TrEMBL record, chains A, B:
InterPro entries: ATPase_NBD, ROK, ROK_cs. This is ROK family protein. Pfam families: ROK. Belongs to the ROK (NagC/XylR) family.
Amino acid sequence: MAISQRQELAIGIDIGGTNTVFGIVDHRGDISYRGAISTRKHNNVTDYINELYDALLPAIDEVGGINAIRGIGIGAPNGNYYNGTIEYAPNLPWKGVIPLAQLMTDKFKVSCSLTNDANAAAVGEMMYGVARGMKDFIMITLGTGVGSGIVANGQLIYGHDGFAGELGHTTIIPDGRKHKGTGLHGSLEAYASATGVALTAIEFLERDNHRDSLLRNFAKEEIDSRVVYDCAIQGDKLAQEVYEFTGKVLGLALANFVMFSSPEAIILFGGMTKAGDLILKPTREHMEKNMLPIFQNKIKLLFSELKEADAAILGASALVWEMKTV
Amino acid sequence: MAISQRQELAIGIDIGGTNTVFGIVDHRGDISYRGAISTRKHNNVTDYINELYDALLPAIDEVGGINAIRGIGIGAPNGNYYNGTIEYAPNLPWKGVIPLAQLMTDKFKVSCSLTNDANAAAVGEMMYGVARGMKDFIMITLGTGVGSGIVANGQLIYGHDGFAGELGHTTIIPDGRKHKGTGLHGSLEAYASATGVALTAIEFLERDNHRDSLLRNFAKEEIDSRVVYDCAIQGDKLAQEVYEFTGKVLGLALANFVMFSSPEAIILFGGMTKAGDLILKPTREHMEKNMLPIFQNKIKLLFSELKEADAAILGASALVWEMKTV
């Protein structure tokens, strides 16, 4: 029994700006021993790894010790697959270039691969989600920010340096809204993220100063994408227009992405997809409108069906099955 | 001797809107027996193939007959690699879906592969040009139109349907200039093609009605990208601004493409590159300005060094070396 269990499991870790979630995953994509620690607590990455180790140790013991684990896969913002590093991640407490895969290998005594969080989610979707069997698709994560993972010819597109797929930072509206983090103007993330939706709502309220809206019951600081959604489903016209505008920008962006890699599907993922048809309908309309006829009415626009944390854990763990050596 | 020559050569054919050029190519990329016929002369594709056959026959005989030819590779506008078809090419005389690879195989009794012209040029560049040894690059053809071929992980990106890489039709300026052929607004091709340069010049002349410019010596119908170039190098300020504006739009577009696939280089190709620094400088400036810092100052922006017709013939012939069966 002990022998047959050797290296049949993978650890999948998703490092988010707030929390790090992890699980032990088998080949079928079943996740056991889920857990989480705070990402923000430790400014020193060594302390963070030590806490992660302590949190994982009981689970590792439970499945038969580290010999049962084939490797560790990590999805992290600004994660670089080629180098196993996290590089200048604005939302993480560790600055500069962090050789995380190497540090993890040293601590856990097992191989570790790393990629960015959206790429990990795309791999999770390809192995266990709605992209199963697809060789060409684009995953767009719509959360606090906008991330992406691009699969073409059945492979993730990493680019020559490991940083491909920063679609959230492509310019959709030249000289448009300035992104606070990057300083770029009119990027997709400035509009189609949860942050962007809140900003659009505030802009619309200020522009039409006398127009009635349920959103006026909230202080400016209270307005977030959730509040806008709640008002929109209560029939508030202005809140609905915020989603229409967001879908217009997102749809235009998706049309451009389609004309780049001609994917079978675009898969939307993350908190913003909770808005359902409010976001999906205008997005689809403006995507179709802005494409050449040869692309129209054939690209699937789908919501992910995986739980948000699960997709990332599954995708991260999938890196392990691709490892060449143990 | 006859035996060792068997199937050591490829026919490369580049079908353009005006002319079709072809050559017989060896493994080292040496082109012999170049020739050309008119693309426009025959509205019936069978007549066209017959003329092409007659034009190629003496060359084929010269190299030892059809047994010396391993296959035929074709680059054509709207060429679909998967199906071997040309589909709805607006600039070709044959309408609808043309099963050209099959028709050529039937006529020549040898395998035929087909891809779009920009993809063929990209493959030519990868095998014999400035992209030699690169696994990730984007080729942008700047001619009457704007085409593209994208290589990632050492492979051409075809997409799920064979139509990937229509970067000329991505929207760069929402609600911008309407493209006469596609009806789309603000696409890259509407600005960064030779046609776009002429339109920009005319717009600038009409906008600043009283401003002096050498371009006013030409009738509206006479203004093309060549005239704008000639005036610009003679120091005409307005003509120079036309190229600056064109570079601004192109640079913004390239920044977006970089954030998609993070290529080692972007290679510019085609008639517009004759403008040299006039187009290259503003393009580079605006590309750098619109990218995330992790991409800045590391993407090579290069002009192709292959002769325009050669790149396409070489790229088309390279399809032959990749053929699985003969």
